[in-house]
């Protein structure tokens, strides 16, 4: 089966590392070196490549920025490749090139396949490519929430399917409960709002305004207020156009235009241009007659009725009372009335809505209780298998009498608290169910199971974490595992068993281990030595692959602190031989 492999990393100006290249094996790579040589920078570098937090304190003193570049071969069609290509990244001969730059001022940049990408994208790819375990990860494993996540991950679809349904019901229940709480706790405010709306609607209803009525009445009031002046002007204009009946000899516009037309009609046959002008004078005469007729009708129809003017002004005053409160114009007042009517209907229906929401809340609570029970059942079944598998792994890690179990319990809610009924008990519910999951360890027969934070020593905790990861490798494999001193607190036979188990894990995944134990390093397919130069930095030549005699010398140093000790050399050769037989 083709899997992803972290092939190499180049690290520049990071911590004690000046410029170094780390070449990794597809199988088990052990990174060794003296304390303070910079081994942990390998873990830190990979963390940066995979979207980890950028700490400007990591930048080497005197440098402007630290740069980590990595090359990961990835099979075509995997989720990581698809996501990278969606971001515009290109593969380089079947490999993803990743780069992360951290400036001394704290700025961070990421590149993937030749394209600048958000740092968060690297974190998304990390889930499919590498599982990083350092000392802080051990501390994370002590948290019940992380232990529940681990159990859910191990259970797979048996938990994820009901959990998805549970989350949907949980979110709906929270939304219903929030709305119901708002309706009940704000009942007084909503009643006051309803009274104000009702008063406004009654006031508008009493006036019964029409759309555009305020504009129409304003025009009518203007006309009635100037009726005499309008009538006088219309009469004078009519006389100018059509003549005054009381002055038969008077000259008017109609008479003058008619005379001009007659003068042209006498000779129009001799010139088409003059005939056209005669036609236009005829049209003017008709237009003058029409306007004169309309002026006469306007003057006759104009009503200078003071009673009508008073009625108009009274109506305008009533409309003004509305526009002062509910809108700048009557059209806006009517729009307010329509919106307020809808709002009042909503408020008046609150009692019905409260009943509906209460019924929905109860139904959702019952549904959530059923889904929570299904989650608990699935987790309980998975917990038995998970605990048995981890216990079996611990037997292979020199803890033959240790027993791992998983405690799944629910926290009951105090009377009056917020919870759901499960098996006749009111239990607290969260977005992930009602279960609290805790990993327990009994390190030897007769010892009571205790939380691993209290029941495990540092070395035992390291082996428990390794056992958990090995179990995951069988159910939810990750292409690459990186362990930072997973063997902390381990020695002797237990260290040999840790090395053997890591080697077996490397048969199905790439394993990189930063270690100080020769028993672990001896099982590696490749051993890298990190060493400083005289000025305290790690240069390109400071990370090298150890083979043959060089590897024996490094294991001797790790065993006895003396590279040339004959006893240590013999022990180192013995370790390498035993590890080689085991791998074969």
Summarize the topology.
Elements: E1 5-14, E2 17-23, E3 28-32, H1 40-49, E4 65-73, H2 79-86, E5 95-103, E6 108-112, E7 115-117, H3 119-129, E8 130-133, H4 135-141, H5 144-155, H6 157-185, H7 187-207, H8 213-225, H9 227-242, H10 253-265, H11 272-301, H12 306-326, H13 330-348, H14 350-395, E9 403-409, E10 420-422, E11 425-427, E12 436-442, E13 450-451, H15 452-455, H16 458-475, E14 480-484, H17 492-505, E15 510-514, H18 518-521, E16 526-530, E17 543-546, H19 548-560, H20 566-583
Parallel strand pairs: 3-15, 3-16, 8-14, 14-15
Antiparallel strand pairs: 1-2, 1-4, 4-5, 5-6, 6-7, 9-12, 10-11, 12-13, 16-17
Summarize the structure.
It is built from 20 helices and 17 strands. The chain is α+β, with helices and mostly antiparallel strands.
Explain the overall architecture.
The strands form four sheets. A six-stranded antiparallel sheet has the order 2-1-4-5-6-7, covered by helices on one side. The protein has a six-stranded mixed sheet with strand order 8-14-15-3-16-17. It has a three-stranded antiparallel sheet with strand order 9-12-13. Among the domains are: 1-134 and 485-584, P-loop containing nucleotide triphosphate hydrolases (Rossmann fold), CATH 3.40.50.300; 213-328, no CATH class. The model has no long low-confidence stretch (mean pLDDT 83). It starts with a strand and ends with a helix. Helices cover 56% and strands 16% of the residues. The chain is built from 20 helices and 17 strands. α6 (157-185) runs antiparallel to α14 and α12 (306-326) packs across α13. It has 584 residues and is an alpha+beta fold. Belongs to the RecN family.
């Amino acid at each position: 089966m083709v899997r992803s492999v972290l092939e190499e990393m180049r690290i520049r100006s990071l911590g004690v590392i000046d410029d170094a290249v780390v070449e990794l094996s597809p199988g088990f790579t052990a990174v060794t070196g003296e304390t303070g040589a910079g081994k942990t920078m390998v873990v830190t570098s990979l963390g940066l490549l995979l979207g980890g937090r950028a700490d400007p304190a990591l930048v080497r003193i005197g440098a402007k920025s630290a740069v980590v570049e990595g090359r990961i071969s990835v099979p075509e069609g995997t989720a990581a490749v698809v996501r990278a290509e969606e971001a515009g990244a290109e593969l380089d001969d079947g490999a993803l090139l990743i780069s992360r730059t951290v400036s001394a001022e704290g700025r961070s940049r990421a590149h993937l396949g030749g394209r600048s990408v958000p740092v968060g994208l690297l974190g998304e790819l990390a889930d499919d490519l590498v599982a990083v375990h350092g000392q802080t990860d051990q501390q994370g494993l002590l948290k019940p929430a992380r232990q529940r996540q681990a159990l859910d991950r191990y259970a797979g679809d048996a938990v994820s399917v009901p959990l998805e349904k549970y989350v949907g019901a949980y979110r709906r229940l929270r939304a219903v409960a929030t709305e119901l709480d708002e309706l009940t706790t704000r009942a007084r405010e909503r009643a006051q709002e309803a009274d104000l709306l009702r008063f406004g609607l009654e006031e508008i209803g009493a006036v019964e305004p029409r759309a555009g009525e305020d504009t129409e009445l304003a025009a009518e009031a203007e006309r009635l207020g100037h009726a005499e002046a309008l009538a006088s002007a219309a009469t004078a204009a009519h006389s100018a156009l059509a003549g005054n009946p009381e002055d038969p000899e008077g000259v008017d516009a109609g008479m003058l235009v008619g005379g001009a037309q007659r003068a042209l009609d006498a000779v129009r046959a001799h010139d088409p241009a003059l005939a056209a002008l005669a036609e236009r004078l005829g049209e003017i005469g008709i237009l003058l007659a029409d306007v004169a007729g309309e002026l006469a009708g306007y003057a006759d129809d104009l009503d200078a009725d003071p009673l009508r003017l008073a009625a108009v002004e009274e109506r305008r005053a009533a409309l003004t009372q509305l526009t002062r409160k509910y809108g700048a114009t009557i059209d806006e007042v009517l729009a307010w009335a329509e919106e307020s009517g809808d709002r009042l209907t909503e408020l008046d229906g609150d009692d019905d809505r409260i009943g509906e929401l209460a019924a929905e809340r109860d139904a959702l609570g019952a549904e959530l209780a059923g889904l929570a029970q299904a989650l608990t059942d699935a987790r309980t079944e998975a917990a038995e298998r998970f605990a048995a598998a981890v216990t079996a792994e611990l037997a292979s890690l020199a803890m033959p009498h240790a027993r791992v179990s998983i405690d799944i319990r629910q926290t009951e809610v105090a009377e009056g608290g917020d919870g759901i009924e499960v098996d006749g008990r009111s239990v607290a519910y969260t977005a992930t169910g009602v279960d609290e999951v805790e990993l327990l360890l009994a390190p030897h027969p007769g010892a009571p199971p205790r939380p691993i934070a209290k029941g495990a020593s540092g070395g035992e905790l390291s082996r428990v974490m390794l056992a958990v990861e090995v179990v995951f490798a069988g159910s939810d494999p990750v292409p690459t595992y990186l362990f930072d001193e997973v063997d902390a607190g381990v020695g002797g036979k237990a260290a040999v068993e840790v090395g053997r188990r890591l080697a077996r894990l490397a048969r199905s995944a790439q394993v990189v281990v930063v270690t100080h134990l020769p028993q672990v390093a001896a099982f590696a397919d490749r051993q890298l030595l990190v060493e400083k130069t005289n000025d305290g930095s790690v240069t390109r030549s400071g990370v090298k692959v150890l083979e043959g005699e060089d590897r024996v010398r490094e294991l001797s140093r790790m065993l006895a602190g003396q590279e040339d000790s004959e006893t240590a050399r013999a022990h180192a050769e013995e370790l390498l031989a035993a590890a080689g037989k085991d791998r074969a």
